[in-house]
Amino acid sequence: MATIAVSSVLDKLGISSTRKMFEKTGSPEQSLRKQSQIAAINILYNNNKSFRGPLGFPISDVIFEGQKAYRDYAGGQLYFTSDTPQGSEEVTVAQVRFVGFHCNEESDEWSGSDEPYFILSVAGANGSNTIRMGPYSKVNEGEHRFEAVNIISVGDMVTPPVVLGIVAMEQDQGSPEEAEAKVRKVFESIEEKFDAVAGELTGTDTGSHVLPEWSRDILLGWIPEGAAALFGMGDDEIEKTATVLFDNKADLKEWKAPAIIGKHGNNEYNLVLNAGRENEGDYQCFFKVDLFKVTVEIVPFAAS
Ligand SMILES: [Ca+2]
Ligand SMILES: [Ca+2]
Ligand SMILES: [Ca+2]
What we know:
CATH class of the largest domain: Mainly Beta
Number of helices: 7
Number of domains: 2
Bound molecules: calcium ion
Number of strands: 14
CATH architecture of the largest domain: Sandwich
Distance between the termini: 24 Å
């Protein structure tokens, strides 16, 4: 029977009473064995950097099935098979690829064509990356450009859900490098904010979303910050948008990426996002978003 020495859990929590352990788990479970298992799973989660690590946010409470106890996370699972909790060796990570754009409408400035560029960022609870595509020269209404560039790749080990941010700009006299650096900095500050709250995570909310409300605020809060950072940059801003991907608990349980919509050039896409503003141009951006399973080493329970 999977069980755990209560004393080892109390030791690791630095407390001496089981009543305190019950308070810490916040679970209504009455069984001391089950309470110890919940506490041990939480300890193992923290050993693995809680939501800043490969497991990401919890998508279930601790579930008891016969002698088994486990908790599902966006990235993987922590469970008991013997007397110490263990982690799944495979975790789920997200990949987001930009496959190009279509110009629905040019700006109304004097030149005969536009020079759009796209600053693309992906941020999750445990990582972020920002790239810039363009400026593309001489873009006219009705034209396509084809790309196949990952914003985050499997190797970046970013656990879903993620936020995909698009800052679409049109170059005139400004510096795309500078704009990119400013957006990158805004996204790096998201990670700093996450670091500041890591370790305070308790319990789960019960909705269908994976992202707790406070994390959603942090992940989407970059839009006003980005607006301030990019103000007066010399290039025209077309639009800033943010989309949350893989935030549905059911999708992560079934490990499901969106269905393929079609091909842009030679590359499949399963996500189309629009970026446009009246008189500044209008673009459709094409993406392929995926979930992959990768092997990871879970820091063991005994490590703390
Ligand atoms: Ca034109
Ligand atoms: Ca221009
Ligand atoms: Ca312009």
